[in-house]
């Protein structure tokens, strides 16, 4: 086990807690049982204090599956685990260790003719951490990644094991659990038959054209993302990803006045597109097209801070105009901002609970004081539109404003207290936002 302090993925903050990375599940259970306070650090793609611990900060990276094509060294002294997922060929359900990255699981499934329904922008993130924070991809028909979950296996406060499954009436409380129910050691997910995706990139597109035709644009493919730097009154690029029978149709020559690009493009204008997934309408496996970034390269820009608000779709037009007005207060801070659609889901603590949302995502420079000073402008823009901050990103939102937007919050708190009455798995973040 390692006890060195660790930072998050982008180096923007140090995670609080004594870091432990056990090499066996029994060791993890023992660490939980002897600790008075435990949180879990996944792939460390959070930008706030969601995983911070007053005592033990546990990592299950040595117990994660690593596909041979993507094998990378784990931190600490132990070699990477090679524990394989378990795929049921009859039901298509796959059981996987919680710390496994989406990219590794996707390749495992691809080798067996299966796939996941959707991906986030980054395939480098751990499955359990992504599910716990309601991380999502894009697409009007695609809910958050937690919607594929059918069971979770936990280490509880005394070190014993427990499984929660979707035949339990309270399971929707476990889909997006913010780490508050226990240490998730394995999960079972629904899969679908393997499918191809192709993506074409269009731009630049005048900002007003996107506002006027957003419903049409967001319906152009299985997944659609609109990118802008907010430095000009335009979207630098619109990424249209098509799947299945959509691939049989003809690609449009332009989208909202933006022509199809003839060369590969990075979401951040001017950055080498080598780490971006293949474009130009070239079909390929879904795991290698739905994410924006390649699994074997550094994701995004690296040194960054992220913020995101999820706004109910009925407020889309006003949210897009509010987004447009952020150009001045965010000047010099935005590397790129992205607008996406996410379908409704049933997870109690999901921002998309029973409502389709637009995601306004900001990749900001890694300058903590300047970003902190700008965050109230984002809250002023999206807060009045019932914007919910992403659970893993920075925000200046007032928890007192946000808590009432989750109608099942008290049910979730009751579930957490039932499983963890001493609140071993809660932290300041959970108490602040949930109770």
UniProtKB/TrEMBL annotation:
Entries under Gene3D superfamilies matching the protein: 3.30.465.10, 3.30.70.2520, 3.30.70.2530, Uridine Diphospho-n-acetylenolpyruvylglucosamine Reductase, domain 2, Vanillyl-alcohol Oxidase, Chain A, domain 4
Domain FAD-binding PCMH-type: 12-194
Keywords: Oxidoreductase
InterPro entries: ALO_C, FAD-bd_PCMH, FAD-bd_PCMH-like_sf, FAD-bd_PCMH_sub1, FAD-bd_PCMH_sub2, FAD_lactone_oxidase-like, Oxid_FAD_bind_N, Vanillyl_alc_oxidase_C-sub2
Pfam families: ALO (PF04030), FAD_binding_4 (PF01565)
Protein name as catalogued: Alditol oxidase
Originating species: Georgenia halophila
Gene: aldO
């Amino acid at each position: 086990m390692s006890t060195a302090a660790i930072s998050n993925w982008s180096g923007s903050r140090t995670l609080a807690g004594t870091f432990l990375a056990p090499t066996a599940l029994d060791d993890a259970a023992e660490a939980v049982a002897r600790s008075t306070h435990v949180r879990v650090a996944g792939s460390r793609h959070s930008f706030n204090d969601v995983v911070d611990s007053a005592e033990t900060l546990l990592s299950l990276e040595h117990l994660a599956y690593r596909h041979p094509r993507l094998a990378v060294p784990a931190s600490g002294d132990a070699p990477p685990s090679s524990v394989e997922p378990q795929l049921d060929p009859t039901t298509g359900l796959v059981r996987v260790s919680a710390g496994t990255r989406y990219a590794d699981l996707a390749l495992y499934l691809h080798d067996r003719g299966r796939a996941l329904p959707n991906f986030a922008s980054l395939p480098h993130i751990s499955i359990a951490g992504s599910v716990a924070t309601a991380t999502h991809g894009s697409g009007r028909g695609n809910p958050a990644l937690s919607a594929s979950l059918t069971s979770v296996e936990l280490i509880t406060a005394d070190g014993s094991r427990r499984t929660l499954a979707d035949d339990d009436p309270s399971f929707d409380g476990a889909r997006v659990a913010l780490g508050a129910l226990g240490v998730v050691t394995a999960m079972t997910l629904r899969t679908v038959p393997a499918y191809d995706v192709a993506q074409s990139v269009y731009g630049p597109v005048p900002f007003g054209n996107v506002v006027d035709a957003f419903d049409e644009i967001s319906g152009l493919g299985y997944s659609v993302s609109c990118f802008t730097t907010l430095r000009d009154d335009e979207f630098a690029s619109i990424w249209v990803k098509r799947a299945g029978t959509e691939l049989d149709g003809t690609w449009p020559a332009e989208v909202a006045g933006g022509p199809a690009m003839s060369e590969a493009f990075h979401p951040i204008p001017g950055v080498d597109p080598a780490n971006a997934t293949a474009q130009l309408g070239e079909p390929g496996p879904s795991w290698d097209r739905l994410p924006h970034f390649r699994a074997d390269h550094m994701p995004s820009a690296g040194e960054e801070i992220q913020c995101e608000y999820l706004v109910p779709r009925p407020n889309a037009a006003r949210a897009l105009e509010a987004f447009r007005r952020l150009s001045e207060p965010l000047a010099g801070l935005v590397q790129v901002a992205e607008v996406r659609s996410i379908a409704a889901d049933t997870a109690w603590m999901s921002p998309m609970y029973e409502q389709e949302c637009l995601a306004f995502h900001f990749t900001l420079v890694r300058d903590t004081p300047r970003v902190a000073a700008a965050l109230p402008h984002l809250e002023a823009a999206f807060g009045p539109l019932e914007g919910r901050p992403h659970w893993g990103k920075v925000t200046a939102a007032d928890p007192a404003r946000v808590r009432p937007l989750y109608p099942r919050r008290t049910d979730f708190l009751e579930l957490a207290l039932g499983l963890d009455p001493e609140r071993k798995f809660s932290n300041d973040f959970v108490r602040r936002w949930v109770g």
